Protein backbone atom coordinates (compact mmCIF):
# COMPACT_ATOMS: atom_id res chain seq x y z
CA UNK A 1 0.00 0.00 0.00
CA UNK A 2 0.96 3.64 -0.06
CA UNK A 3 1.26 5.48 3.23
CA UNK A 4 -0.69 2.71 4.91
CA UNK A 5 2.67 1.02 5.33
CA UNK A 6 3.36 3.58 8.05
CA UNK A 7 3.13 2.32 11.62
CA UNK A 8 1.19 5.44 12.61
CA UNK A 9 -2.55 5.03 13.05
CA UNK A 10 -4.80 6.92 10.63
CA UNK A 11 -5.88 9.32 13.36
CA UNK A 12 -2.26 10.16 14.23
CA UNK A 13 -1.12 11.05 10.69
CA UNK A 14 -1.27 14.39 8.95
CA UNK A 15 -4.70 14.87 7.40
CA UNK A 16 -4.65 15.76 3.71
CA UNK A 17 -7.45 17.68 2.02
CA UNK A 18 -8.44 18.70 -1.51
CA UNK A 19 -8.81 22.44 -2.04
CA UNK A 20 -8.81 22.72 -5.84
CA UNK A 21 -9.88 20.66 -8.85
CA UNK A 22 -9.45 21.09 -12.58
CA UNK A 23 -10.57 19.04 -15.57
CA UNK A 24 -10.56 19.05 -19.33
CA UNK A 25 -12.38 16.03 -20.67
CA UNK A 26 -14.36 14.61 -23.59
CA UNK A 27 -17.51 15.92 -21.86
CA UNK A 28 -16.46 19.46 -20.99
CA UNK A 29 -13.71 21.99 -20.54
CA UNK A 30 -13.94 22.15 -16.76
CA UNK A 31 -15.32 20.34 -13.71
CA UNK A 32 -18.82 21.80 -13.83
CA UNK A 33 -19.48 21.12 -17.51
CA UNK A 34 -18.04 17.62 -17.27
CA UNK A 35 -20.14 16.83 -14.20
CA UNK A 36 -23.33 18.20 -15.74
CA UNK A 37 -22.84 16.08 -18.86
CA UNK A 38 -22.21 12.99 -16.73
CA UNK A 39 -25.40 13.46 -14.76
CA UNK A 40 -27.28 13.89 -18.03
CA UNK A 41 -25.89 10.58 -19.31
CA UNK A 42 -24.17 12.14 -22.30
CA UNK A 43 -21.39 10.39 -24.20
CA UNK A 44 -18.17 12.08 -25.25
CA UNK A 45 -17.37 9.35 -27.77
CA UNK A 46 -17.63 10.24 -31.43
CA UNK A 47 -16.30 9.36 -34.85
CA UNK A 48 -12.79 10.70 -35.34
CA UNK A 49 -12.03 13.01 -38.25
CA UNK A 50 -8.22 12.94 -38.29
CA UNK A 51 -6.56 12.24 -41.62
CA UNK A 52 -4.95 9.03 -40.32
CA UNK A 53 -8.17 7.37 -39.15
CA UNK A 54 -8.57 5.14 -42.19
CA UNK A 55 -5.12 3.66 -41.49
CA UNK A 56 -6.52 1.77 -38.50
CA UNK A 57 -9.60 -0.42 -37.98
CA UNK A 58 -10.73 1.89 -35.16
CA UNK A 59 -12.53 5.07 -36.22
CA UNK A 60 -13.93 6.27 -32.87
CA UNK A 61 -12.54 7.95 -29.79
CA UNK A 62 -13.24 10.54 -27.12
CA UNK A 63 -11.22 13.74 -27.77
CA UNK A 64 -11.52 16.66 -25.37
CA UNK A 65 -14.64 18.79 -25.75
CA UNK A 66 -12.66 22.07 -25.74
CA UNK A 67 -9.51 22.32 -27.84
CA UNK A 68 -6.39 23.59 -26.03
CA UNK A 69 -5.91 26.26 -28.70
CA UNK A 70 -9.08 27.92 -27.42
CA UNK A 71 -7.55 28.35 -23.96
CA UNK A 72 -3.79 28.70 -24.37
CA UNK A 73 -1.60 31.25 -26.12
CA UNK A 74 0.23 30.37 -29.31
CA UNK A 75 3.66 30.29 -27.57
CA UNK A 76 2.23 27.91 -24.95
CA UNK A 77 0.83 25.68 -27.69
CA UNK A 78 4.18 25.65 -29.49
CA UNK A 79 6.28 24.65 -26.49
CA UNK A 80 4.00 22.01 -24.96
CA UNK A 81 3.00 18.61 -26.25
CA UNK A 82 -0.74 18.04 -26.18
CA UNK A 83 -0.33 16.18 -22.87
CA UNK A 84 1.30 19.28 -21.41
CA UNK A 85 -1.37 21.55 -22.87
CA UNK A 86 -4.16 19.57 -21.23
CA UNK A 87 -2.31 19.37 -17.91
CA UNK A 88 -1.70 23.12 -17.88
CA UNK A 89 -5.37 23.88 -18.50
CA UNK A 90 -6.55 21.62 -15.69
CA UNK A 91 -3.79 22.74 -13.31
CA UNK A 92 -4.68 26.41 -13.76
CA UNK A 93 -8.31 25.65 -12.96
CA UNK A 94 -7.38 23.70 -9.81
CA UNK A 95 -4.89 26.32 -8.66
CA UNK A 96 -7.42 29.10 -9.12
CA UNK A 97 -10.12 27.23 -7.20
CA UNK A 98 -7.65 26.61 -4.37
CA UNK A 99 -7.28 30.37 -4.08
CA UNK A 100 -3.57 30.84 -4.73
CA UNK A 101 -1.91 33.56 -6.78
CA UNK A 102 -1.84 32.56 -10.48
CA UNK A 103 1.89 33.17 -10.93
CA UNK A 104 5.20 31.56 -10.10
CA UNK A 105 6.14 34.50 -7.90
CA UNK A 106 6.36 34.15 -4.14
CA UNK A 107 2.94 33.88 -2.53
CA UNK A 108 2.21 34.62 1.14
CA UNK A 109 -0.31 31.76 1.11
CA UNK A 110 2.22 29.05 0.22
CA UNK A 111 5.95 28.51 0.70
CA UNK A 112 7.18 27.51 -2.75
CA UNK A 113 9.87 25.37 -1.12
CA UNK A 114 6.97 23.33 0.26
CA UNK A 115 5.00 23.23 -3.00
CA UNK A 116 5.29 20.00 -4.99
CA UNK A 117 4.01 18.59 -8.27
CA UNK A 118 3.10 14.99 -9.13
CA UNK A 119 1.51 14.75 -12.58
CA UNK A 120 1.49 11.45 -14.43
CA UNK A 121 1.04 10.20 -17.95
CA UNK A 122 0.82 6.60 -19.04
CA UNK A 123 2.28 7.18 -22.52
CA UNK A 124 3.76 10.69 -22.52
CA UNK A 125 4.34 12.96 -25.51
CA UNK A 126 3.70 10.36 -28.17
CA UNK A 127 2.17 12.84 -30.64
CA UNK A 128 5.33 14.95 -30.49
CA UNK A 129 7.44 11.82 -30.95
CA UNK A 130 5.52 10.62 -34.00
CA UNK A 131 5.43 14.06 -35.61
CA UNK A 132 9.15 14.59 -35.01
CA UNK A 133 9.94 11.24 -36.59
CA UNK A 134 7.88 12.18 -39.64
CA UNK A 135 9.72 15.50 -39.86
CA UNK A 136 13.08 13.76 -39.60
CA UNK A 137 12.25 11.38 -42.45
CA UNK A 138 10.55 13.90 -44.70
CA UNK A 139 12.52 17.11 -44.11
CA UNK A 140 15.77 16.14 -42.42
CA UNK A 141 17.28 16.42 -38.95
CA UNK A 142 17.75 20.18 -39.08
CA UNK A 143 13.98 20.68 -39.18
CA UNK A 144 13.35 18.76 -35.96
CA UNK A 145 12.20 21.26 -33.33
CA UNK A 146 14.67 22.17 -30.56
CA UNK A 147 11.96 21.57 -27.94
CA UNK A 148 11.22 18.05 -29.19
CA UNK A 149 12.82 16.26 -26.22
CA UNK A 150 11.25 18.41 -23.45
CA UNK A 151 7.89 18.04 -25.19
CA UNK A 152 8.00 14.27 -25.58
CA UNK A 153 9.37 13.52 -22.09
CA UNK A 154 6.74 11.80 -19.90
CA UNK A 155 7.66 14.27 -17.15
CA UNK A 156 7.21 17.25 -19.48
CA UNK A 157 3.71 18.17 -18.22
CA UNK A 158 4.78 17.95 -14.58
CA UNK A 159 7.84 20.07 -15.30
CA UNK A 160 5.76 22.68 -17.13
CA UNK A 161 3.31 22.94 -14.24
CA UNK A 162 6.13 23.21 -11.71
CA UNK A 163 7.60 26.09 -13.72
CA UNK A 164 4.20 27.74 -14.03
CA UNK A 165 3.70 27.93 -10.27
CA UNK A 166 7.28 27.87 -8.98
CA UNK A 167 7.05 24.52 -7.20
CA UNK A 168 10.34 23.64 -5.52
CA UNK A 169 9.49 20.75 -3.16
CA UNK A 170 9.87 18.15 -5.92
CA UNK A 171 8.35 17.39 -9.30
CA UNK A 172 7.39 13.78 -10.03
CA UNK A 173 5.89 11.66 -12.81
CA UNK A 174 4.87 8.12 -11.84
CA UNK A 175 4.21 5.94 -14.87
CA UNK A 176 1.93 2.98 -14.19
CA UNK A 177 -0.12 2.76 -17.38
CA UNK A 178 -3.82 3.42 -16.71
CA UNK A 179 -3.23 3.73 -12.96
CA UNK A 180 -0.76 6.60 -13.42
CA UNK A 181 -3.03 9.53 -12.54
CA UNK A 182 -4.30 7.84 -9.37
CA UNK A 183 -0.74 6.92 -8.36
CA UNK A 184 0.30 10.56 -8.75
CA UNK A 185 -2.44 11.56 -6.32
CA UNK A 186 -1.31 8.85 -3.93
CA UNK A 187 2.24 10.18 -4.23
CA UNK A 188 0.98 13.67 -3.39
CA UNK A 189 -0.64 12.22 -0.28
CA UNK A 190 2.67 10.67 0.74
CA UNK A 191 4.63 13.87 0.10
CA UNK A 192 2.44 15.80 2.52
CA UNK A 193 2.29 13.06 5.14
CA UNK A 194 6.07 12.75 5.09
CA UNK A 195 6.52 16.51 5.50
CA UNK A 196 8.20 16.96 2.12
CA UNK A 197 5.47 19.35 1.01
CA UNK A 198 2.55 21.31 2.38
CA UNK A 199 0.78 21.68 -0.96
CA UNK A 200 0.95 19.38 -4.00
CA UNK A 201 -0.53 19.85 -7.47
CA UNK A 202 -1.20 16.32 -8.66
CA UNK A 203 -3.13 14.25 -11.17
CA UNK A 204 -2.80 12.86 -14.66
CA UNK A 205 -2.88 13.85 -18.32
CA UNK A 206 -3.02 11.92 -21.57
CA UNK A 207 -3.24 12.71 -25.27
CA UNK A 208 -2.63 9.55 -27.27
CA UNK A 209 -5.39 9.57 -29.86
CA UNK A 210 -2.97 9.08 -32.73
CA UNK A 211 -2.44 6.35 -35.27
CA UNK A 212 0.38 4.43 -33.56
CA UNK A 213 -1.21 4.05 -30.09
CA UNK A 214 -4.58 3.33 -31.68
CA UNK A 215 -3.06 0.74 -34.00
CA UNK A 216 -1.19 -0.84 -31.10
CA UNK A 217 -4.25 -1.12 -28.89
CA UNK A 218 -6.24 -2.41 -31.87
CA UNK A 219 -3.65 -5.12 -32.48
CA UNK A 220 -4.19 -6.26 -28.88
CA UNK A 221 -7.96 -6.38 -29.51
CA UNK A 222 -8.31 -3.97 -26.58
CA UNK A 223 -10.45 -1.35 -28.36
CA UNK A 224 -14.13 -1.42 -29.22
CA UNK A 225 -14.77 -1.83 -32.94
CA UNK A 226 -18.30 -0.42 -32.74
CA UNK A 227 -17.48 2.25 -35.34
CA UNK A 228 -21.08 2.60 -36.46
CA UNK A 229 -22.35 3.46 -32.95
CA UNK A 230 -19.71 5.62 -31.25
CA UNK A 231 -21.89 6.79 -28.35
CA UNK A 232 -22.81 3.19 -27.52
CA UNK A 233 -19.35 1.71 -27.86
CA UNK A 234 -18.21 1.99 -24.25
CA UNK A 235 -20.37 -0.58 -22.41
CA UNK A 236 -18.98 -1.54 -18.98
CA UNK A 237 -20.44 -4.77 -17.59
CA UNK A 238 -22.57 -5.34 -20.68
CA UNK A 239 -22.45 -8.78 -22.29
CA UNK A 240 -21.94 -7.11 -25.69
CA UNK A 241 -18.89 -5.07 -24.66
CA UNK A 242 -15.93 -5.53 -26.99
CA UNK A 243 -13.20 -3.25 -25.63
CA UNK A 244 -12.55 0.26 -24.40
CA UNK A 245 -12.77 3.55 -26.26
CA UNK A 246 -9.60 5.63 -26.21
CA UNK A 247 -10.04 9.10 -24.75
CA UNK A 248 -7.91 12.07 -23.78
CA UNK A 249 -7.91 14.79 -21.16
CA UNK A 250 -6.52 15.76 -17.77
CA UNK A 251 -7.62 15.80 -14.15
CA UNK A 252 -5.74 17.77 -11.50
CA UNK A 253 -6.32 18.25 -7.77
CA UNK A 254 -4.59 20.52 -5.29
CA UNK A 255 -3.79 18.67 -2.08
CA UNK A 256 -2.64 20.31 1.12
CA UNK A 257 -2.34 19.47 4.76
CA UNK A 258 -5.52 20.18 6.67
CA UNK A 259 -3.54 22.45 8.99
CA UNK A 260 -2.17 24.49 6.08
CA UNK A 261 -5.60 24.80 4.49
CA UNK A 262 -7.19 25.91 7.76
CA UNK A 263 -4.47 28.48 8.43
CA UNK A 264 -5.21 30.28 5.17
CA UNK A 265 -8.98 29.86 5.37
CA UNK A 266 -9.25 27.62 2.32
CA UNK A 267 -12.47 25.87 1.33
CA UNK A 268 -12.08 22.11 1.71
CA UNK A 269 -13.71 20.10 -1.08
CA UNK A 270 -12.95 16.66 0.39
CA UNK A 271 -10.37 14.80 2.42
CA UNK A 272 -8.02 12.32 0.76
CA UNK A 273 -8.26 9.87 3.63
CA UNK A 274 -6.14 7.04 2.28
CA UNK A 275 -4.78 5.04 -0.61
CA UNK A 276 -3.92 1.44 -1.34
CA UNK A 277 -1.39 0.19 -3.85
CA UNK A 278 -0.68 -3.38 -4.93
CA UNK A 279 0.53 -5.32 -7.95
CA UNK A 280 -0.72 -8.51 -9.57
CA UNK A 281 2.51 -10.13 -10.81
CA UNK A 282 0.17 -12.03 -13.13
CA UNK A 283 0.41 -10.78 -16.73
CA UNK A 284 1.79 -7.78 -18.59
CA UNK A 285 -1.66 -6.73 -19.81
CA UNK A 286 -4.43 -9.03 -18.56
CA UNK A 287 -5.77 -8.60 -15.02
CA UNK A 288 -5.75 -11.41 -12.49
CA UNK A 289 -9.22 -12.88 -13.16
CA UNK A 290 -9.74 -13.47 -9.45
CA UNK A 291 -9.03 -9.79 -8.73
CA UNK A 292 -6.74 -10.75 -5.85
CA UNK A 293 -4.25 -7.93 -6.35
CA UNK A 294 -6.94 -5.30 -6.83
CA UNK A 295 -8.73 -6.59 -3.72
CA UNK A 296 -5.53 -6.03 -1.72
CA UNK A 297 -5.44 -2.43 -2.92
CA UNK A 298 -9.07 -1.93 -1.86
CA UNK A 299 -8.43 -3.39 1.59
CA UNK A 300 -5.26 -1.32 1.97
CA UNK A 301 -7.12 1.89 1.15
CA UNK A 302 -9.77 1.10 3.76
CA UNK A 303 -7.11 0.38 6.37
CA UNK A 304 -5.15 3.50 5.48
CA UNK A 305 -8.28 5.63 5.86
CA UNK A 306 -9.39 3.87 9.05
CA UNK A 307 -12.78 3.10 7.51
CA UNK A 308 -15.08 0.12 7.06
CA UNK A 309 -17.22 -1.11 4.19
CA UNK A 310 -20.44 0.16 5.74
CA UNK A 311 -19.05 3.72 5.63
CA UNK A 312 -18.59 3.69 1.83
CA UNK A 313 -21.29 5.66 0.01
CA UNK A 314 -20.01 5.33 -3.55
CA UNK A 315 -17.47 3.62 -5.79
CA UNK A 316 -16.17 4.99 -9.09
CA UNK A 317 -15.04 1.78 -10.76
CA UNK A 318 -12.17 1.36 -13.22
CA UNK A 319 -14.62 -0.53 -15.49
CA UNK A 320 -13.07 0.04 -18.92
CA UNK A 321 -15.57 -2.07 -20.94
CA UNK A 322 -13.12 -4.88 -21.66
CA UNK A 323 -14.33 -8.48 -21.56
CA UNK A 324 -11.72 -9.56 -18.98
CA UNK A 325 -11.25 -6.45 -16.87
CA UNK A 326 -14.78 -5.57 -15.82
CA UNK A 327 -15.66 -8.82 -14.09
CA UNK A 328 -12.19 -9.14 -12.55
CA UNK A 329 -12.91 -5.83 -10.81
CA UNK A 330 -16.26 -7.12 -9.62
CA UNK A 331 -14.44 -10.05 -8.04
CA UNK A 332 -11.96 -7.64 -6.48
CA UNK A 333 -14.70 -5.46 -5.00
CA UNK A 334 -16.45 -8.46 -3.50
CA UNK A 335 -13.21 -9.80 -2.04
CA UNK A 336 -12.02 -6.41 -0.82
CA UNK A 337 -15.28 -5.12 0.64
CA UNK A 338 -17.20 -8.29 1.45
CA UNK A 339 -20.92 -8.82 1.12
CA UNK A 340 -21.55 -5.19 2.10
CA UNK A 341 -20.48 -4.16 -1.40
CA UNK A 342 -23.99 -5.00 -2.58
CA UNK A 343 -25.29 -1.91 -0.74
CA UNK A 344 -22.81 0.50 -2.37
CA UNK A 345 -23.77 2.32 -5.60
CA UNK A 346 -21.12 1.83 -8.29
CA UNK A 347 -20.64 4.15 -11.27
CA UNK A 348 -18.69 3.28 -14.42
CA UNK A 349 -18.11 6.74 -15.86
CA UNK A 350 -15.91 5.50 -18.70
CA UNK A 351 -19.19 4.60 -20.36
CA UNK A 352 -19.41 8.33 -21.10
CA UNK A 353 -15.82 9.64 -21.06
CA UNK A 354 -14.10 6.75 -22.75
CA UNK A 355 -10.80 5.62 -21.24
CA UNK A 356 -8.31 8.45 -20.63
CA UNK A 357 -5.47 5.97 -19.97
CA UNK A 358 -2.95 7.64 -17.62
CA UNK A 359 -5.38 10.47 -16.89
CA UNK A 360 -8.35 8.21 -16.11
CA UNK A 361 -7.70 7.77 -12.40
CA UNK A 362 -7.19 11.49 -11.88
CA UNK A 363 -10.35 12.46 -13.75
CA UNK A 364 -12.28 9.83 -11.82
CA UNK A 365 -10.84 11.06 -8.53
CA UNK A 366 -12.42 14.43 -9.31
CA UNK A 367 -15.69 12.69 -10.20
CA UNK A 368 -15.61 10.73 -6.94
CA UNK A 369 -15.18 13.98 -5.02
CA UNK A 370 -18.05 15.54 -6.98
CA UNK A 371 -20.26 12.58 -6.14
CA UNK A 372 -19.54 13.08 -2.44
CA UNK A 373 -19.99 16.85 -2.62
CA UNK A 374 -23.33 16.65 -4.43
CA UNK A 375 -24.43 13.42 -2.75
CA UNK A 376 -25.16 12.01 -6.20
CA UNK A 377 -23.84 8.96 -8.04
CA UNK A 378 -23.60 9.51 -11.81
CA UNK A 379 -25.17 6.88 -14.06
CA UNK A 380 -23.59 4.16 -16.16
CA UNK A 381 -24.89 4.26 -19.72
CA UNK A 382 -25.05 1.54 -22.39
CA UNK A 383 -25.63 -1.23 -19.82
CA UNK A 384 -28.44 -2.90 -21.73
CA UNK A 385 -27.57 -6.54 -21.09
CA UNK A 386 -25.81 -6.89 -17.71
CA UNK A 387 -23.48 -9.80 -17.11
CA UNK A 388 -25.45 -12.56 -15.35
CA UNK A 389 -22.84 -12.64 -12.59
CA UNK A 390 -22.83 -8.88 -12.05
CA UNK A 391 -23.19 -8.98 -8.27
CA UNK A 392 -22.63 -5.30 -7.47
CA UNK A 393 -25.09 -2.41 -7.50
CA UNK A 394 -24.28 -0.54 -10.72
CA UNK A 395 -26.09 2.79 -11.09
CA UNK A 396 -27.81 2.60 -14.48
CA UNK A 397 -29.27 5.26 -16.76
CA UNK A 398 -30.17 7.86 -14.11
CA UNK A 399 -28.21 9.54 -11.28
CA UNK A 400 -28.91 8.25 -7.78
CA UNK A 401 -28.82 9.96 -4.37
CA UNK A 402 -26.15 8.72 -1.97
CA UNK A 403 -26.65 7.68 1.63
CA UNK A 404 -25.83 10.79 3.71
CA UNK A 405 -24.78 8.58 6.62
CA UNK A 406 -21.90 7.12 4.63
CA UNK A 407 -19.10 9.70 4.24
CA UNK A 408 -16.55 7.87 2.03
CA UNK A 409 -16.04 7.26 -1.67
CA UNK A 410 -13.60 4.92 -3.40
CA UNK A 411 -11.91 5.33 -6.77
CA UNK A 412 -10.31 2.29 -8.44
CA UNK A 413 -7.60 2.47 -11.11
CA UNK A 414 -5.79 -0.47 -12.67
CA UNK A 415 -3.08 -0.53 -15.33
CA UNK A 416 -1.24 -2.81 -17.75
CA UNK A 417 1.62 -4.41 -15.88
CA UNK A 418 -0.56 -5.32 -12.91
CA UNK A 419 -0.76 -1.90 -11.22
CA UNK A 420 -3.64 -1.46 -8.76
CA UNK A 421 -4.53 1.81 -7.01
CA UNK A 422 -7.51 2.58 -4.80
CA UNK A 423 -8.05 6.09 -3.46
CA UNK A 424 -10.34 6.75 -0.49
CA UNK A 425 -11.99 10.17 -0.17
CA UNK A 426 -14.08 11.48 2.71
CA UNK A 427 -16.84 14.02 2.26
CA UNK A 428 -15.98 17.45 3.63
CA UNK A 429 -17.82 18.16 6.86
Describe the structure.
The structure is a single chain. The chain starts with 15 loop residues before the first strand and ends with a strand. Strands 5-4-6-7-1-8-15-14-9-10-12 form an 11-stranded mixed sheet, sandwiched between helices. Residues 1-6 have low confidence and may be disordered. The protein is built from 13 helices and 15 strands. Helices cover 32% and strands 18% of the residues. By secondary structure, it is α/β, with parallel strands linked by helices. It is globular and about 60 Å long.
List the helices and strands and how they pair.
Blueprint (H helix, E strand, L loop, with lengths): L15 E9 L6 H9 L6 E2 L12 E2 L12 H6 L2 H17 L16 E6 L5 H14 L8 H5 L3 H10 L5 E2 L7 H14 L5 E8 L4 H9 L29 E9 H6 L6 E10 L12 H14 L6 E5 L8 H13 L7 E3 L2 H4 L6 H15 L1 E2 L15 E2 L5 E2 L6 E8 L3 E9 L2
Parallel strand pairs: 4-5, 4-6, 9-10, 9-14, 10-12
Antiparallel strand pairs: 1-7, 1-8, 2-3, 6-7, 8-15, 11-13, 14-15
Helix pairs in contact: 3-6, 7-13, 10-11
Using brief descriptors, characterize the structure shown.
single chain; 429 residues; eleven-stranded mixed beta sheet; 13 helices; globular
Nutshell version of this structure?
With 429 residues, the protein is an alpha/beta fold. It has helices at residues 31-39, 74-79, 82-98, 126-139, 148-152, 156-165, 180-193, 211-219, 258-263, 292-305, 325-337, 350-353, 360-374; strands spanning 16-24, 46-47, 60-61, 115-120, 171-172, 199-206, 249-257, 270-279, 312-316, 345-347, 376-377, 393-394, 400-401, 408-415, 419-427.
